[in-house]
Write a structure and sequence with these properties.
957 residues, Ubiquitin-like (UB roll), N-terminal domain of TfIIb, Rossmann fold, 30 helices, 17% strand, 2 iron, 2 sulfur cluster binding, MoPterin_dinucl-bd_dom, 4Fe-4S
Length: 957
């Protein structure tokens, strides 16, 4: 194996369809109009020396190393900023050019430390490479004068290099090695969109600076890594490279954090990861990354990771480490015993949205064919199950309509109940780039999120009251219909006209106007009307939404209302438009595709369908139960009733992530066998009897499916530290339970998935290796996948308009609980924090905090940083206050990344009417000053510490 080389063409690709032909060093080259001479030369096989140019960002033309000669033109223009034109005759090498380039390099080297042998970038330094490329062998200038290398104080040059900035936990900044090429500054602006870096000072004092000469950690830098990636020297270098050395081989894999699905090169020395570098050919991320995917992979080696199977009879007992065989035998005996005592339906399982498609498929297969019931569910139940229901009802499919590239053609972006800058940051960067080019942004959110406050982006913010999504979206539709802004041609051609007429009459009712609904929503009617007009008339309109839409008692209704909005304006079925759910976890789309819901087999086909069951029964050689099984909330209720007594939970921390924590505790405590299959002793494991150690994404082969339906390979870069990949663990557990599943490699599991799932018919590892990735449906009609859905018609035939009546949540504010709590994520942390809390990312978010509006804080005597008690009808917890006007009066907000906060002690059992997705986003609460942790937090912490005891090896024998 070797390092995967990626060609840097120096300047971005031109999208023009007009071609031009020129001659470079005697060779004719034809390229798209707008292509730089530098890139055209690369196409012809001529590599022009460069330092400030990279195809990540627009041409800058500052280094003067890429100069060329053009016949008929005076001077030596920079090839990076000079466009190719018909008939040009270009020379990239001549005596004059050699002399110029050598002189330029001589000046750079005179202003640079010559510590190459001990430099962290040795062997991976463009300055070093270019010195060789131009034939520089001697430098005539000494170090007597001022330069970057030596620090200056009191007007004198000190014999010490300028101090490094080591504040960022993941990379170091060495100003003495900065050549002021501005690549990092441009990457921060053009690729990331944060604008955190600048060039400060003049002349020899000029250098990169984060903000106003702040430290990197203290600045607005979000540690996405774009600057490190762009840097051609060792000015910005990963600390892991400095510590370990340069990598010697790399493997392309897929990030295991959010639903964007970024492709990375895992750059390795042996089985040790040196760094994760975003892969330029990754179609979801196009060579960009965020702090989590780029840097927060250290949890795979964390000391708290459990590598040996463990069992115990009672949750009060300490854990006992055992062999794999003993663990499987113990677990199978317990689960079979429960079925014998309580019946076949008394056990079930929960698949993981963090594991691969193949592993998820095996877990649902084990439950349906091995356990003999359909008691299988997944964390999508508590996040995006309304997406599946709402979009299948209106469009006929349970997934987003576009690929991420589509955003480049968007003219109006509507973000509802999502904060991509925190939860889907790489997509957010792509969106912000389009917004800086002139697209308009409408944000519908109770908070003034990072998207609203983003640099160089002006957003129309509609700060609605939590729980009023349906009223807001229907009011938008009211304006579109009553002002004659509907796209009648699209509706007549693509939708059911009679259903549209019924729906249009409904939304046109005066009670749905912005003025009438303002008392509910809290939104200025003028702003809402303006938003509706912009979306309906502004060109290609795309809607992106998140858990702020789905995690409501009317989550499914809101998804349907959003689909109605897209259809009435004709914003569906082409690039730049569509309805796009931003999936939370890396494989939440895949876990749904693989049949993780109790009523659906893989491919979203109902378990009651005899013809569908026949296919699975023939291949699995077993009779399947035609009755849908229990959803997660039903499992909990049945456990408390005493009829559901055993559960296998793979890669999901239901105790921390599901609502009404006390109810979950009661359910888990009542069960006789809880099997947790994970990397760490998570919160659910406090109530487990069997712990099966999991493997990280770096330790297994498989596929993930991201939010744009993109199926991508996950490739093993190291041996599983626990000895078994997760798919192997599930197969062994099934065998112990008496159900044989025989596979030698995950590719064979995918072959079975493709044989049974119509949307995956053409998917194979060979195809994924060839194409890089594919978006389902991938079949005979679309052999290379489907980037944009519903282009020629809806999957269900005619698009279906459905009336969306607003029904207020049963969770109401009142004298006891006058405030509304809503929850969300923060950039540096992920979901329940099990992975990110075990990395250096905690430096940005060491604890969950409660955001409170200054008015509400003043009324309650709460100051910044005070401990406050947060109480609801379900429970109470305490956390520190953060006073901010990002939330409206009457609304408070917190994250749920830290288990010591237990934010879900507060959330209630209210859920979506169609899917049981919990109503996390609307909880009536009261806050009051506190002295510290609540009684519940203290007792929970005590139980957790007691439960995590592991018996010494000699005691276990």
């Amino acid at each position: 194996m070797s390092l995967i080389e990626e060609i840097d063409y120096g300047t971005p690709r031109s999208k023009s369809e007009t071609m031009v032909t020129l001659t470079i060093d005697g060779n004719q080259v034809t390229v798209p109009e707008g292509t730089s001479i530098m890139r055209a030369a690369m196409d012809a096989g001529h590599q022009i020396p460069k330092l400030c140019a990279t195809d990540m960002v627009d041409a800058f033309g500052s280094c003067r190393l890429c100069v060329v000669e053009i016949e008929g033109r005076a001077g030596t223009p920079a090839s990076c900023t000079t466009p190719a034109m018909n008939g040009l005759v270009v020379h990239t090498q001549s005596e004059r050019l050699k002399k110029l380039r050598k002189g330029v390099m001589e000046l750079y080297i005179s202003d640079h430390p010559l510590d190459c042998l001990t430099c962290g970038a040795n062997g991976d330094c463009e300055l070093q490479d270019m010195a060789g490329a131009v034939g520089l062998r001697d430098v005539r200038y000494g170090y007597e004068g001022e330069n970057h290398v030596f620090a200056k104080s009191n007007g004198k040059i000190n014999a010490a290099w300028m101090p490094k900035d080591e504040s960022n936990p993941y990379f170091t900044y060495d100003p003495s090695k900065c050549i002021v090429c501005s690549r990092c500054v441009r990457a921060c602006e053009e690729v990331q969109g944060t604008f955190a870096l600048t060039i400060s000072g003049r002349g020899f004092d000029s250098r990169v600076s984060p903000g106003m000469s702040e430290s990197f950690l203290g600045s607005e830098c979000v540690s996405c890594g774009a600057c490190v990636q762009a840097c051609p020297t060792a000015t910005l270098t990963e600390k892991s490279v400095i510590e370990i050395g340069q990598p010697e081989h790399s493997v392309v894999t897929t990030c295991a954090y959010c639903g964007v699905g970024c492709a990375f090169k895992a750059e390795m020395r042996g089985e040790e990861v040196v760094r994760m570098v975003p892969y330029k050919d990754g179609k979801a991320n196009r060579g960009h990354s965020c702090v989590k995917g780029r840097f927060a992979w250290g949890y795979t080696n964390h000391k708290e990771r459990i590598l040996n199977p463990m069992i115990r009879e009672r949750i009060e007992d300490p854990w006992r480490e055992v062999s794999w065989d003993e663990a499987f035998s113990f677990a199978a005996e317990k689960m079979r015993g429960i079925q014998k005592k309580y019946g076949r339906d008394a056990i079930g399982g929960i698949t993981s949205s963090r594991c691969t498609n193949e592993e998820t498929y095996l877990v649902q297969k084990l439950i349906r064919a091995g356990f003999g019931n359909n008691n299988v569910d997944t964390c999508a139940r508590v996040c995006h199950s309304p997406t599946g229901y709402g979009l299948s009802q209106t469009f006929g499919t349970s997934a987003g309509t576009q690929d991420f590239d589509s955003v480049e053609d968007t003219d109006v972006a509507v973000i509802i109940g999502a904060n991509p800058a925190s939860a889907h940051p790489v997509f957010a960067s792509r969106l912000k780039k389009r917004l800086r080019q002139g697209a308009k942004l409408i944000v519908i959110d109770p908070r003034r999120t990072e998207m609203v406050e983003s640099p160089h982006v002006k957003a129309l913010h509609l700060p609605l009251m939590p729980g009023t999504n349906v009223a807001v979206v229907t009011a938008l539709a009211h304006v579109i219909v009553t002002e004659g802004l509907a796209n009648e041609a699209f509706i007549r051609e693509r939708c059911d006209w009679s259903e549209f007429e019924e729906w249009a009459a409904f939304v046109a009712q005066p009670k749905h106007s912005p003025e009438a609904t303002a008392i509910l929503t809290g939104i200025d009617p003028k702003d809402l009307r303006e938003a509706a007009r912009i979306y309906a008339t502004g060109g290609n309109g795309a809607i992106y939404y998140g858990l702020g839409v789905t995690e409501h008692s009317q989550g499914s209704t809101t998804v349907i209302a959003i689909a109605n909005l897209a259809m009435v304006t004709g914003n569906i079925g082409r690039p730049g438009v569509g309805v796009n759910p931003l999936r939370g976890q890396n494989n939440v789309q895949g876990s749904c595709d693989m049949g993780s819901f109790p009523h659906e087999l893989p491919g979203y086909r109902h378990i009651s369908g005899e013809a569908v069951r026949d296919q699975f029964e023939a291949l699995w050689n077993v009779k399947l139960n035609p009755e849908p099984g229990l959803r997660i909330p039903n499992m909990f209720d049945a456990a408390i009733e005493g009829t559901f007594m055993g559960i296998y939970v793979q890669g999901e921390d239901i105790l921390q992530s599901d609502p009404n924590t006390k109810h979950v505790v009661a359910a888990l405590s009542a069960m006789e066998c809880v099997i947790v299959h994970d990397l760490f002793l998570n919160e659910t494991a406090n109530y487990a009897h069997v712990f099966l150690p999991g493997s990280s994404f770096l330790e297994k082969d498989g596929t993930f499916t991201n939010a744009e339906r993109r199926i991508q390979r996950v490739r093993k870069v190291m041996t599983p530290k626990n000895g078994m990949a997760d798919w192997e663990v599930t197969i062994a557990l099934a065998k112990a339970m008496g159900f044989e599943m025989n596979y030698n490699h995950p590719s064979e599991i995918m072959d079975e998935i493709a044989a049974l799932t119509p949307t995956f018919t053409g998917v194979s590892y060979a195809k994924l290796d060839e194409l890089g990735s594919v978006q389902w449906p991938c079949n005979e009609k679309a052999p290379e996948g489907t980037p944009v859905m519903h282009m020629d018609g809806f999957v269900r035939g005619k698009g279906k308009f459905i009336v969306t009546e607003y029904v207020a949540t049963d969770e109401r504010t009142g004298p006891r609980f006058p405030l509304l709590l809503t929850t969300g994520r923060i950039l540096s942390q992920y979901n329940v924090g099990a992975q990110t809390r075990r990395t250096e990312n905690v430096v940005w978010h060491a604890e969950d905090r409660l955001e409170i509006h200054p008015h509400d804080a003043e009324q309650r005597g709460v100051r910044e940083g005070d401990w406050v008690r947060l109480t609801s009808r379900a429970g109470e917890t305490t956390l520190r206050a953060e006073i901010t006007d990002r939330v409206s009066p009457g609304v408070v907000y917190t994250t749920f990344h830290h288990p010591d906060t237990q934010a879900n002690v507060i959330t209630t059992d209210y859920s979506d009417w169609a899917t049981n997705c919990p109503e996390y986003k609307v909880t009536a609460v009261q806050i009051s000053p506190s002295n510290g942790p609540s009684d519940w937090q203290k007792s929970y912490d005590e139980q957790a510490r007691h439960s995590r005891r592991i018996a010494p090896a000699e005691a276990a024998e």
